């Protein structure tokens, strides 16, 4: 086992750190903090993307740095350290970009990847429906064949950032509505196309959800990803690849650091053991995320290990948030300082064990893999 | 960065698992380890050992725990740290003394990491037994493991074991790195965030505390899933439960270890840039 970053990774870290310290980027980060409501992070991502560090694991022709999955950890760690909100990056580059790299045509990749890597275009995810949450194979959004493509109708919900995005990755049904896994297709939907309507759904957390109603939205054949009807396998792979736990591990570390930094020696004496426990849990979260990424790096990706990483990292971050809030008194809704960060974390925490697959679904995946069990 | 076992670790694990197959719980494995030439695994070549680091020692300790062995590996490594003469004796296969003065300093750090690995092994071995038993035993017309309440418990324990295995491997890696001394180039590299360049002392304490709680918790649940049979003299699982109880507190009680870990966490300096970023983001009035 080797837990040290190599010189290539350290150089990348130094490079990202330098980019994040440039005046343009600093100003964009400060502007986020100054604005009211949910901020628009696109100018910030445009500034970082122009420096070419947002998609380090992609080939250079698509705006990447030819690195492996481990390089994603380096970039994500530095973005988190500098206080750059992660959702747009995760959705656009890590989720939609990865699906495009896995099953997109050369033309689709050329069209989108360099723009995603450059922070010029943004993507969101439209999987969940009002009646299809954990059981995603129950989705009913229909794609009817028409000359040159499909007309898509249905309702998607709980999408983050939809109002800021240009394009969405959606799971729709092209085949027989009676079958579950057959006939699901992944498509790209132009969010500015006629028939698309995004409505904000307020959330307990700082980031709001969106309901996206699709009314006979035209999707050209050139925006279908992979073979029509065969999207389920790609979808489950994509979902599993979201589950390295990296972003949750970084939240755990960030919140832990903030809670620890805000402790006075007096508070601290009372909570030394908790400080030790949550520190270990946050460390383990990072190690699990790294181990999941290392498996990706060696093409030994293991969906069960990813489920373990997702489960631990999200539960760990949620527990750190709960602890941090108890230390600082979340109920008082402070407006500044570490207390504000921890109060916001406390409102974000319950979503962590729900997004990208609820904890029980992770436990199902892990339990199902136990040899000797008849599950 | 490659937080996965290397080829030698994989080979060592496979060879040991093969050799330890059939060893009864609480069996004496001193001679068996001697035949495999493993007593000197961590001992310097000058004293007749292999000079492999703790990163390999934890593989040995975990496999010993997995079969609930009564080993002399951990005490031997500790005895060898008192001087070259003792080290040569241990490497040559002499039994270490049954009692020894409590270790301190680096020897204590390494003893804790080995102990954590042994406890991870106990938990993993007990978990294997519980998976097997609950897959075979039927009640209400289906395997016990098919119930979500039991399947989820086994799944959660598997995650816990993996979590502690990684904390232990990380502590061993840090201890080995410290022992080797860091190259000059390391100083010029940016410090990672979250701080990845931890101290072996803290890493050892938290690995042991987490492993102790995992071992007692996982062995108890594993015994529970065996039903009353698990309590009987025939059942291997009860040995895991017993051993976890005695081994968990060998180098400190978990509660005291967690406090010690917390103490060290407070002592380390915050990353000022990160703190500034948090404060800047938190300046926002509206939400
Ligand atoms: C912060 C956040 C961001 C999100 N972003 C997006 C997005 O961008 N795009 C998108 O499409 N969706 C998004 N989602 C939606 C998310 O994917 C779904 O909420 C999730 O899949 C769970 O579905 P559900 O909410 O309908 O819960 P349900 O499936 O109704 O589950 C509710 C509860 O039932 C229990 N349960 C469910 N299944 C099982 C089981 N098999 N065994 C035992 N118990 C079970 C669990 O306790 C679970 O929490 C986001 C959600 C959150 C919280």
Q: What secondary-structure arrangement, pairings included, does this model have?
A:
The complex is a heterodimer of chains A (375) and B (287).
Chain A: H1 7-21, H2 23-34, H3 42-49, H4 69-81, H5 87-103, H6 106-117, E1 123-126, E2 142-146, E3 149-160, E4 167-173, E5 184-190, E6 196-201, E7 209-220, E8 224-225, H7 231-241, H8 246-261, H9 265-270, H10 272-297, H11 303-328, H12 337-352, H13 359-369
Parallel strand pairs in A: 1-4
Antiparallel strand pairs in A: 2-3, 3-7, 4-5, 5-8, 6-7
Helix pairs in contact in A: 1-4, 2-3, 4-8, 5-6, 5-7, 8-10, 8-11, 8-12, 10-11, 11-12, 11-13
Chain B: H1 7-20, H2 30-35, H3 54-66, H4 73-80, H5 84-91, H6 105-136, E1 138-139, E2 142-143, H7 148-180, H8 184-188, H9 200-225, H10 237-247, H11 254-267, H12 272-282
Antiparallel strand pairs in B: 1-2
Helix pairs in contact in B: 1-3, 3-6, 4-5, 4-6, 6-7, 6-9, 6-10, 7-9, 9-10, 9-11
The complex binds flavin-adenine dinucleotide.
The site of flavin-adenine dinucleotide (FAD) has 17 residues of chain A, from strand 1, strand 3 and helix 13.
Would you kindly provide a written description of the structure presented here, covering whatever features stand out?
The complex is a heterodimer of chains A (375) and B (287). Chain A has 375 residues and is of the alpha+beta class. Chain A is 50% helix and 15% strand. In chain A, strand 6 and strand 7 form a beta hairpin. The longest helix of chain A has 26 residues. The relative contact order of chain A is 0.09. The model of chain A has no long low-confidence stretch (mean pLDDT 93). Chain B has 287 residues and is an all-alpha fold. Chain B has a single domain, classed as Butyryl-CoA Dehydrogenase, subunit A, domain 3 (Up-down Bundle), CATH 1.20.140.10. Chain B is built from twelve helices and two strands, in the order H-H-H-H-H-H-E-E-H-H-H-H-H-H. Chain B has a two-stranded antiparallel ribbon with strand order 1-2. In chain B, strand 1 and strand 2 form a beta hairpin. In chain B, helix 1 packs parallel to helix 3, helix 3 runs parallel beside helix 6 and helix 9 runs antiparallel to helix 10. The model of chain B has no long low-confidence stretch (mean pLDDT 92). Classes of the chains: A alpha+beta (375), B mainly alpha (287). Chains A and B meet through helix 1, helix 2, helix 4, helix 8 and helix 10 of A and helix 6, strand 2, helix 7, helix 9 and helix 11 of B. Bound molecules: flavin-adenine dinucleotide (FAD). The site of flavin-adenine dinucleotide (FAD) has 17 residues of chain A, from strand 1, strand 3 and helix 13. The site of flavin-adenine dinucleotide has 17 residues of chain A, from strand 1, strand 3 and helix 13. Chain B: It comes from Phytohabitans maris. Chain B: Keywords: FAD, Flavoprotein. Chain B: InterPro entries: AcylCo_DH-like_C, AcylCo_DH/oxidase_C, AcylCoA_DH/ox_N, AcylCoA_DH/ox_N_sf, AcylCoA_DH/oxidase_NM_dom_sf.
């Amino acid at each position: 086992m080797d837990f040290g970053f190599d010189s290539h990774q350290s150089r990348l870290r130094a490079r990202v750190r330098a980019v994040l310290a440039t005046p343009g980027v600093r100003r964009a980060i400060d502007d986020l903090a100054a604005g009211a409501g949910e901020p628009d992070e696109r100018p910030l991502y445009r500034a970082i993307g122009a420096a070419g560090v947002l998609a380090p694991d992609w080939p250079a022709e698509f705006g990447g740095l030819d690195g492996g999955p481990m390089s994603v950890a380096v970039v994500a760690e530095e973005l988190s350290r500098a206080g750059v909100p992660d959702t747009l990056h995760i959705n656009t580059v890590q989720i939609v970009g990865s699906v495009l790299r896995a099953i997109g045509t050369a033309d689709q990749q050329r069209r989108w990847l360099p723009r995603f890597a450059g922070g010029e275009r943004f993507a969101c995810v439209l999987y969940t429906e009002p009646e299809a949450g954990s059981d995603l194979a129950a989705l009913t959004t229909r794609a009817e064949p028409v000359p040159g493509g499909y007309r898509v109708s249905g309702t998607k919900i709980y999408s983050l950032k939809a109002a800021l995005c240009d394009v969405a990755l959606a799971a729709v049904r092209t085949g027989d509505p009676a079958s579950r896994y057959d006939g699901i297709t992944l498509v790209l939907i132009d969010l500015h196309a006629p028939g698309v309507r995004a409505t904000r759904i307020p959330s307990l957390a700082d980031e709001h959800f969106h309901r996206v109603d699709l009314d006979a939205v035209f999707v050209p054949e050139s925006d279908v990803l992979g073979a029509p009807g065969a999207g389920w396998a790609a979808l489950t792979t994509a979902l599993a690849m979201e589950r390295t736990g990296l972003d949750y591990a970084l939240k755990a570390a960030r919140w832990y650091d903030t809670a620890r930094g805000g402790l006075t020696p007096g508070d601290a004496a009372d909570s030394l053991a908790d400080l030790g426990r949550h520190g270990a849990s946050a460390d383990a979260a990072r190690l699990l995320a790294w181990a999941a990424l290392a498996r990706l790096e060696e093409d030994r990706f293991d969906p069960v290990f990813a489920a373990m990483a997702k489960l631990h990292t999200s539960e760990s971050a949620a527990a750190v948030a709960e602890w941090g809030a108890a230390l600082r008194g979340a109920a008082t809704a402070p407006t500044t300082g570490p207390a504000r960060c921890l109060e916001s974390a406390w409102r974000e925490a319950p979503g962590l064990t729900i997004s990208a697959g609820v904890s029980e679904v992770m436990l199902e995946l892990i339990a199902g893999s136990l040899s000797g069990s008849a599950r | 960065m490659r937080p996965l076992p290397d080829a030698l670790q994989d080979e060592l694990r496979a060879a040991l698992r093969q050799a330890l197959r059939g060893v009864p719980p609480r069996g004496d494995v001193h001679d068996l380890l001697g035949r495999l030439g493993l007593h000197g695994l961590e001992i310097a070549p000058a004293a007749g050992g292999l000079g492999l680091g703790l990163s390999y020692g934890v593989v040995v300790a975990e496999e010993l725990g997995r079969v609930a062995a009564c080993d002399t590996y951990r005490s031997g490594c500790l005895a060898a740290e008192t001087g070259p003469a003792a080290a040569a004796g241990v490497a040559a296969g002499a039994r270490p003394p049954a009692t020894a003065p409590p270790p301190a300093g680096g020897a204590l750090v390494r003893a804790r990491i080995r102990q954590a690995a042994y406890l991870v092994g106990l938990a993993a071995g007990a978990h294997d037994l519980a998976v097997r038993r609950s897959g075979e035993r039927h009640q209400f017309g289906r395997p016990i493991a098919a119930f979500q309440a039991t399947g989820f418990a086994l799944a959660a324990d598997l995650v816990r074991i993996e979590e502690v295995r990684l904390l232990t491997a990380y502590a061993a890696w840090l201890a080995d790195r410290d022992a080797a001394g860091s190259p000059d180039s390391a100083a010029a590299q940016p410090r990672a965030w979250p701080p990845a360049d931890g101290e072996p002392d803290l890493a050892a304490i938290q690995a042991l505390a987490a492993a102790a709680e995992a071992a007692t918790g996982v062995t108890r649940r594993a015994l529970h899933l065996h039903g009353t049979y698990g309590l009987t003299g025939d059942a291997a699982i009860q040995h895991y439960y017993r051993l976890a109880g005695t081994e968990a507190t060998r180098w400190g009680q978990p509660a005291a270890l967690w406090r010690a870990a917390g103490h060290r966490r407070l002592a380390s300096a915050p990353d000022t840039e990160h703190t500034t970023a948090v404060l800047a983001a938190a300046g926002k009035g509206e939400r």
